[in-house]
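Project outcomes to date are best conveyed with an example. Our students and postdoctoral researchers have been running inverse folding experiments weekly, and each run begins with a structure described purely in C-alpha cells. The record below, which covers 182 residues, was selected by the lab manager from last quarter's runs and is presented without edits.
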C-alpha cells in the first residue's frame, strides 16, 4: 500500500513537471505578471517608535507641557504609547486617534477646509460625528502627523494634552529625530 502511494506521488510530481505546473499549484506563466508581494519596503518598528516618543517627550518638557504620545504603523496600529506624569488621562485616546487618522488618511490632522477658505464648522462637526461612527478612527483636531520616509507614509505620531498646534509641534520634533537618525 505504501509503495502504491509513493508511486502516485512520484507520478504526480513527474506529470506536474511535464505540464509546467509547480508543486505549489501555480503555473510558470503566472510568474510573468505583476509581483504578488511588495518587497524591500520601509516599515516603522518599535525601536523607531521609541526614539520618536523619547524626543517628543523631551520637546514637551522644553515647552513645559505634559502630554500623551502615540506612535502607529502605516495601517494605524499602535506601536508605542507614553503618558507623561501628570498628563491628562482623557487625552490618551485622543493622541491615539490623531496618530491613527494621520497614518490612514496619509496627511496631518486638523480642521477640514473647503478649498482655500477658512475651516467649515458644519463640515468639521459632521466629520466628528463620522469619527464617532467609525469607532474613533478620524479626527479634525490638530496633533496627528504622518511619518514619511522616501515619499512613503510608514506611520504617524499623535500627541494630546496641549493645544493642537503645540501637539503637532511635539509630534514633528519626534519625527525629525527619527529622520535625522536614518
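After processing, the design step wrote out the following sequence:
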Amino acid at each position: 500500500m505504501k509503495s502504491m502511494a509513493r508511486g502516485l506521488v512520484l507520478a504526480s510530481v513527474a506529470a506536474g513537471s511535464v505540464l509546467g505546473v509547480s508543486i505549489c499549484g501555480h503555473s510558470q506563466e503566472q510568474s510573468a505578471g505583476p509581483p504578488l508581494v511588495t518587497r524591500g519596503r520601509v516599515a516603522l518598528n518599535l525601536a523607531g517608535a521609541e526614539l520618536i516618543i523619547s524626543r517628543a517627550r523631551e520637546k514637551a518638557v522644553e515647552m513645559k507641557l505634559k502630554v500623551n504620545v502615540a506612535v502607529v504603523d502605516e495601517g494605524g496600529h499602535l506601536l508605542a504609547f507614553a503618558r507623561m506624569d501628570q498628563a491628562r488621562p482623557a487625552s490618551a485616546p485622543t493622541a491615539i486617534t490623531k496618530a491613527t487618522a494621520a497614518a490612514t488618511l496619509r496627511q496631518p490632522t486638523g480642521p477640514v477646509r473647503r478649498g482655500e477658505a477658512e475651516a467649515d464648522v458644519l463640515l468639521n462637526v459632521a466629520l466628528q460625528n463620522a469619527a464617532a461612527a467609525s469607532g474613533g478612527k478620524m479626527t479634525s483636531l490638530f496633533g496627528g502627523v504622518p511619518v514619511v520616509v522616501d515619499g512613503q507614509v510608514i506611520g504617524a505620531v499623535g500627541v494630546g494634552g496641549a493645544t493642537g498646534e503645540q501637539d503637532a509641534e511635539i509630534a514633528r520634533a519626534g519625527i525629525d529625530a527619527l529622520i535625522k537618525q536614518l
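The chain has two domains: 2-32, 46-181. The helical segments are 2-19, 46-62, 91-105, 121-133, 164-181. The training component of this project remains on track.
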